[in-house]
Amino acid sequence: MTALRNDAFDELLAGRPLMAIFRGLGVERSLELARRAWDLGIDAVELPIQSDDDVEALAAVVAAGRAEGRAVGAGTVVTTRHVELAASAGAAFTVSPGFDPDVVRASIAAGLPPLPGVATASEVQAAMALGLTWLKAFPASLLGPAWFRAMAGPFPGARFVATGGMDATNAGAYLDAGVRTVAVGSALEDPEQLPALARLLGR
């Protein structure tokens, strides 16, 4: 069986401790916050696609990001149809809340590096057995920083993106626990958190 690889994230997320997620905000607000993220120094942006409006917003942010050399991915990709929509919108990668080998294969076939979600050692092992090295840990706020330290023992090759309940107040603890990238959303709408996020980017 051919190994499935997503080591393109070695470059997409290299040296990027934060990724931005904008869910269900429409075209204008998504563009506004994406530009805020980019101005702050958060290069990677993800827009979950759960409606036609979301796909429209994704396409708009992809176009804006392409002009600035920024990678924009599609999130909440849970079906092969979602992979098709992500590809049609020009997404650079896909992100899923769980681990579905069919979605992973469809994403790779479409030329989009997949970032599948995991929450247990069994899921990490299954994903890595297929050849995947980058994994989204979700919901990270419930798993806690200790989970990542525990996973580092049996799975030293795993590279985790922590998603779910992350903001400027807790992101540092996850990065200290070995997380490569922390995905934040509403924190970018809070002016009080922006300075703290900027400090995290300068770690």
UniProtKB/TrEMBL annotation:
<dbReference type="GO" id="GO:0016829">
    <property type="term" value="F:lyase activity"/>
</dbReference>
<dbReference type="InterPro" id="IPR000887">
    <property type="entry name" value="Aldlse_KDPG_KHG"/>
</dbReference>
<dbReference type="InterPro" id="IPR013785">
    <property type="entry name" value="Aldolase_TIM"/>
</dbReference>
<comment type="subunit">
    <text>Homotrimer.</text>
</comment>
<keyword id="KW-0456">Lyase</keyword>
<keyword id="KW-0119">Carbohydrate metabolism</keyword>
<comment type="similarity">
    <text>Belongs to the KHG/KDPG aldolase family.</text>
</comment>
<protein>
    <submittedName>
        <fullName>Bifunctional 4-hydroxy-2-oxoglutarate aldolase/2-dehydro-3-deoxy-phosphogluconate aldolase</fullName>
    </submittedName>
</protein>
<comment type="pathway">
    <text>Carbohydrate acid metabolism.</text>
</comment>
<dbReference type="Pfam" id="PF01081">
    <property type="entry name" value="Aldolase"/>
</dbReference>
